[in-house]
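QA checklist item 7 of 12: single-chain prediction sanity check.
[x] sequence parsed
[x] length recorded as 281
[x] structure emitted
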Amino acid sequence: MDTSAKLDVALRKDTVERKKQQGARCLGKQRDGHFALSVGVPNACFSAAQLRALADIVERYAKVGHLSTAQSMVLLGIEGQDYAQARRAVLEAGFQIRSVGRDVFHVKCCPGADYSPFGLQRTFALVAHLEETFRALPTPQKFKIALSGCPNCCANTRLAEFGIHAAMNGWKIFVGGKMGFAPTVARELAGPVAADQVPQYLAAVLRSYRALAEPNERLTRTVERIGFEVFKSAVEECLHLPYEDLAAEARQSRLALEQEEVIGLLDAGKSRNAASIPAPD
């Protein structure tokens, strides 16, 4: 079995350069010449009606749907001229357009105590609140969140920028993890804390990261550069601050992701930095 492939150097270079840009963007041109769209739902829980609608969307606009490790469905093989219609159909079916940019990603989670025999805390309500409040907030680099409702690390809570891990009497908070080429295991920041304190910690971590990071720097590198205790102190200084301003900024960013232009799309066969996409009706 031959699994070899020749690297497309130009495509890789274009992809790397695109990832350095702020703003909403699609996954960009793929190796087959088509485009991809990352979609999902909060808590990664689909209804039967949504699955039927998604099957129809894949049939109409894509070649195949791929389940990602981040609990998203990536629609592969979309023609550039069909991207707007595919995105509109996804939104009308009740799905999210998932971020692939320099902002707060959706929350990767497990079913928690509502379903898992090992669950210590319920997960769905907390995940929904965190996504409604912070998803798509601009950050210096991608910012991933993972939440596990049982003692296991099934959601990779220690391989995300912000990990939330259930304990018998609350939640443990971890920061500074990542996957990628050189994975980093997150360090424990606080805990156990009450569920109502989790968004406060996330807001404080986001404020500290945005204030202390260098351009294009992942959180793990920021923490490594300034020291964990320095970063922890900065977070603790921000814990008392309300986060309505961050929530408002995140809402505006989600609107751009769903309705405005996206970086990395070829419009009518012509390369541009950004292509204007009509808003859904």
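[x] summary fact logged: The mean pLDDT is 88.
[ ] second reviewer sign-off
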